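Final report, closing paragraph on structural work. Over the funding period we assembled a curated collection of sequence-structure pairs, and we close with a single example.
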Amino acid sequence: MWDVLLDAFLDTIKLSWILLVFYILIELVEQKIAVKMNSKLKSNYAVAVGAGFGIVPQCGFSVLASDLYSRRQITLGALLAVFIATSDEALPILFSHINEQGVWLKLLALILSKFVLALIVGYAVDLTVRLARKKQSSIQADTVESTEEHIHEDHDHIDEEEHSHDHSHEDNHEDEEVDIHKGCCGHHIDDKKESNVKKYLVHPLLHTLKILAYIFIINIVMGIIVYYVGEERLAEFMSKSGVLQPILVTLVGLIPNCASSVIITELFLGGAISFGSCLGGLIVNAGLGIAFLFKANKHIKENFAIVCGLFVFAVVVAIAFHYIIPQF
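Its predicted structure, as stored:
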């Protein structure tokens, strides 16, 4: 048992300097581009921008996307593109193992898969929404022409009330400042009062220690399981779990915490789960974005519909890739 603890500790320590350097670089990148993302996500290229920014390992882009969507400043497709592209802690962990055989290929496959899927879903959803609204507008126009005058007036009155409600909803959010880096580090990206030492060293160090703690716990748990169960039995169990594995891993990915992405990535690197299962779990793992969506967007049914749709899509992708690429 002591050997298990020692191996878990040594394996964790090996990653420490790599993760620290990576998170310092991420902090430097975030300071330059995260605030600019606010305006870029409102452009006509919002879906592509959302997919691109979502790939960058960070804590707050999905939170920012949820806030902008709650104000109706970005489309549903752009929101989903950010969610699907976001991988939370997966990329830093994969980068920390980049010297191991085949890891660079896994990293490249994960990035490309999530980016392409984000683009496809984002543009497909926006196109569907536009067509549905166009059809609805056409039906409403025909209905208005065939109704009596008092019905027409009542309809206009209702529309004015709804518009007023939506406008009021946007106004209530207009002056709010969303914390686009509210997550593991808990600080504002654009906080001018913070010193460079705190921004570029303290926060990355704290973030690194937190992730290392998760990895250490996972290494201990996996080590104990392997110690008592045996590697052959464990591999046999995971390989025979079939269609249940992608579903279970995707459910774990819904947990709004960086620990879930750490668990999924570590299991993938250890060969315990397939690429498809890992991909499905990371598609729904949008950091704190989903949790913040329920806080910012008052349309609860809409929020559940978004999460359920995202989950179903992730499960379908996970199962498909699970059988297409069983061993990777």
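The first helix runs from residue 2 to 33. The chain has 15 helices and no strands. We thank the funder for supporting this effort.
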